[in-house]
Backbone:
């Protein structure tokens, strides 16, 4: 297994999602509260697909997604009329949990056979695992198999999750996402009133109705943490990663050439060169 290189280690540090607050105008299609799936038990899959880039290119990638949306709770509230959680997306679905909850994530490996095992790391949490096969950093899901990760969401705030298997390739291919842990403790003194038609900023009177949301925050306490200094009125989630299209093209070529190979058999693996790393500038 190829060790994670310094470039990708640096990229992973940039994957930590940022929860940002602002008072800017919203468009009719924007979500002020970060969209995601809420609960304590999640079923994710790692799958391949082609991702459309801003310049129109279709880039072969891997990403996390939902194995099923049945029984899934979508947030914010206006997503109840048009929920989404694709089988594969980049970044992966945002997992919204409550502080103190025991979170369970079951991962199914639906990547091409030659891609080998895959996994998820949850930095900042004490994780236990069930099933899967032993990997370098955590238990992994073999091709077509599953592994389950469990942890207590002890720390409120915004965290990242990403593949712990051959990270220089799998994170580059798109296997990463974010977790929002909502605080249970309200700050003292409390935060300002939640956004309503009466309290929304007079300079932005149509914002409340434009987004179709009764509130611009996922947190019922109005704060990102249990302190007054983290009170906010709107939240946005941004998660960034670089992309080197050459790596994606090599992965596609090797996956295509090794289609039908037997997992674990000699030659049924990828040897994609991830250095030198040349991210796209377009």
Residues:
């Amino acid at each position: 297994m190829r060790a994670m290189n310094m470039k990708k280690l640096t990229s992973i540090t940039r994957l930590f999602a940022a929860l940002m607050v602002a008072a800017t105008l919203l468009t009719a299609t924007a979500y002020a509260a970060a969209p995601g799936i809420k609960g304590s038990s999640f079923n994710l899959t790692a799958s391949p697909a082609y991702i459309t880039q801003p310049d129109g290119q279709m880039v072969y990638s891997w990403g996390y997604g939902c194995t099923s949306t049945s029984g899934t709770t979508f947030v914010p509230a206006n997503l109840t009329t048009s929920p989404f959680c694709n089988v594969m997306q980049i970044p992966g679905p945002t997992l919204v949990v409550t502080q103190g909850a025991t979170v369970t994530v079951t991962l199914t490996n639906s990547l091409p056979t030659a891609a080998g095992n895959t996994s998820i790391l949850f930095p900042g949490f004490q994780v236990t695992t069930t099933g899967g096969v032993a990997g370098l950093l955590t238990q992994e899901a073999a091709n077509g198999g599953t592994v389950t990760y469990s942890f207590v969401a002890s720390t409120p705030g915004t965290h990242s999750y990403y593949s712990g298997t051959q990270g220089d390739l799998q994170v580059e291919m798109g296997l990463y996402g974010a977790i929002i842990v909502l605080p249970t403790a309200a700050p003292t003194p409390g935060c300002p009133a939640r956004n309503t038609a009466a309290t929304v900023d007079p300079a932005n009177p149509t914002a409340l109705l434009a987004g179709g949301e009764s509130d611009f925050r996922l947190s019922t306490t109005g704060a990102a943490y249990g302190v007054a200094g983290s009170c906010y009125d709107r939240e946005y989630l941004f998660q960034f990663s670089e992309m080197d299209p050459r790596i994606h093209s090599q992965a596609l070529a090797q996956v295509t050439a090794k289609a039908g190979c037997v997992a674990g058999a000699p030659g049924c693996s990828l040897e994609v060169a991830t250095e030198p790393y040349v991210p796209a500038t377009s």
Notes: The radius of gyration is 20 Å. The longest helix spans residues 245-257. Residues 34-186+242-257 form a domain with the Immunoglobulin-like fold (CATH 2.60.40.420).
